[in-house]
Write a structure and sequence with these properties.
This protein has 123 residues and is mainly alpha-helical. Helices cover 59% and strands 7% of the residues. It is built from 6 helices and 2 strands. A two-stranded antiparallel ribbon has the order 1-2. The chain is globular, with a radius of gyration of 16 Å. The mean pLDDT is 92.
């Protein structure tokens, strides 16, 4: 059972997601990581968990381990992190719509509906 008070370092997961995007498998890896964390209660910072998620997403787990052990894509992830922090994101979840609008924090569906309707009316 997962200890919900635990905070995990997901930097390596983000590096792996960057690599998965280059491989055309980022959505599949995101789903596998969500499954591992939210359903199975696994640590998303653990390299074995990450390699297993990569395999579940159709990626080569040996190549995934090589990415994790090399420190590859750290600069890219840090640059993206800096960019999004510059856009006002300091916590998750944060939903960005059209690279212009942000909905921050866990919000009820009605808020998303109102925001999307308002954005659509502007177009």
């Amino acid at each position: 059972m997962r200890d919900d008070s635990r905070i995990y370092n997901t930097f390596d997961a983000h590096r792996l997601l960057h690599w998965a995007e280059l491989e055309g498998k980022q959505p599949a890896l995101k789903h596998a990581l969500f499954e591992a964390y939210f359903t199975e209660g696994k640590n998303p910072g653990d390299h074995q968990v990450l390699a297993d998620a990569a395999a579940a997403a159709g990626l080569d787990p040996v190549a995934a381990r090589a990415v994790l052990e090399s420190g590859a894509y750290a600069k890219d992830v840090r640059e993206a992190e800096k960019f999004w922090q510059g856009q006002g994101i300091s916590a998750v979840p944060a939903v960005i719509i059209n690279h212009k609008y942000m909905i921050s924090g866990g919000q009820p569906p009605e808020l998303f509906e109102r925001a999307l309707r308002s954005i659509a009316a502007e177009s």
